[in-house]
Amino acid sequence: MQTKLKGIRSYHKITAEEMAKEIGVHKDAYLGKENGRTEFKLNEMFTIAKRFNMRVDDLFSPTTSRHEKED
Question: For the HTH cro/C1-type domain, which residue ranges apply (predicted)?
Fold first, then answer.
C-alpha cells in the first residue's frame, strides 16, 4: 500500500528527518513507515495530518497503482 504522504511531504519541501522529529521517531523508523514496511501509529497519523492541514483518511488512504486499475 502506498499513501500520498511522500509526495505531499516532498511538495512542501519537508525532509524525512523533519517529519521524524515531529512525530518523535528516528529518521530510519519514519522512512520505514512512509515506505510501508511498518505502520504509523494513530497518534502519528493525526500529527502528520495536522501538519499538512489534511484529514487522516485523505492523507493515509491507499493509492491505486496503474496495474491495480487495469485488473
Answer: 5-59
What pLDDT, in 10s, does the model give residues 17-66?
999 999 999 999 999 999 989 999 999 999 999 999 999 998 888 765 44
The pTM of the full predicted model, rounded to 2 decimals, is 0.80
How far, CA to CA in Å, does 34 sit from each of 16, 39, 47, 69, 71?
A: 9, 8, 14, 22, 26
Q: Where are the beta strands (DSSP E) in 1-71?
A: none
23 close to 47: Cβ distance less than 8 angstroms: yes
| Cα radius of gyration rounded to whole Å, the chain | 12
